[in-house]
């Protein structure tokens, strides 16, 4: 019986020593472990959204949307100079909608674009910026939606029903 008591005492001492920081405060490590445990599900649930812009455009096309030519941007040829920059998107494509007049410059008027961000905060900042410019201004008006880190923009030349097809396809993939 004495041996069992000694083992319990040693185990308790080891447990306390493992939880305490150098000052004897046993809450610091325990608090960090709780944070790590609550953060893990967020990372796991975010994984399905880890599509790049080209993959999103491919899935939109596979969903039956009339996407023609797609241009994949790099940091060197991004017309907005946001690709890979702080707070900017991590990938971007522009595409032609085959129902619309095509242009060589791949602007949103000829189809649309997909921008994917590292996080929802950066995506929301970009959404709010574009929304402020385009809302209520017939010259710059467009349809656009934000779904997590994915920002989808399509031409104002599409009918509301045609544009909504893009929105539904985006929702279905995320």
Condensed summary:
By secondary structure, the protein is an alpha+beta fold. The chain has helices at 2-19, 27-46, 53-62, 120-134, 160-173, and strands at 67-72, 89-97, 111-117, 142-147, 150-155.
Outline the structure in words.
By secondary structure, this protein is α+β, with helices and mostly antiparallel strands. It folds into two domains: 46 residues, no CATH class; 124 residues, no CATH class. Helix content is 44%, strand content 20%. The chain has five helices and five strands, in the order αααβββαββα. The chain has a five-stranded antiparallel sheet with strand order 1-2-3-5-4, sandwiched between helices. The radius of gyration is 25 Å and the shape is globular. It starts with a helix and ends with a helix. The N terminus is likely disordered.
Topology overview:
Blueprint lengths: L1 H18 L7 H20 L6 H10 L4 E6 L16 E9 L13 E7 L2 H15 L7 E6 L2 E6 L4 H14 L1
Antiparallel strand pairs: 1-2, 2-3, 3-5, 4-5
Structural class: alpha+beta
Can you tell me the residue ranges where pLDDT is under 50 for at least 5 consecutive residues? 1-49
Overall morphology: globular
> How much strand?
15-25%
Q: How many domain regions?
A: 2
The overall strand count is 5
Mean pLDDT: 78
Helix fraction by DSSP (H/I, runs of at least 4): 40-55%
Strand order of the largest sheet: 1-2-3-5-4
- Characterize the biggest β-sheet: 5 strands, antiparallel
Secondary-structure element pattern, one letter each: HHHEEEHEEH
Total DSSP helices: 5
N-to-C span: 60 Å
Radius of gyration: 25 Å
């Amino acid at each position: 019986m004495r041996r069992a008591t000694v083992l319990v005492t040693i185990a308790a001492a080891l447990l306390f020593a493992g939880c305490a920081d150098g000052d004897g405060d046993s809450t610091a490590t325990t608090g960090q472990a709780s944070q790590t445990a609550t953060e893990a599900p967020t990372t796991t649930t975010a994984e399905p959204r880890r599509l790049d812009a080209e993959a999103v455009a491919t899935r939109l096309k596979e969903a039956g949307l009339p996407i023609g030519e797609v241009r994949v941007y790099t940091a060197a040829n991004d017309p907005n100079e946001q690709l890979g920059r702080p707070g900017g998107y991590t990938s971007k494509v522009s595409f032609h909608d085959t129902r619309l007049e095509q242009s060589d410059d791949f602007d949103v008027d000829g189809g649309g674009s997909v921008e994917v961000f590292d996080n929802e905060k950066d995506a929301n900042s970009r959404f709010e910026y574009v929304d402020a410019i385009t809302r209520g201004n017939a010259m710059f008006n467009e349809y656009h939606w934000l779904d997590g880190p994915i920002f989808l923009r399509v031409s104002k030349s599409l009918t509301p029903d045609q544009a909504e097809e893009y929105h539904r396809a985006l929702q279905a993939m995320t």
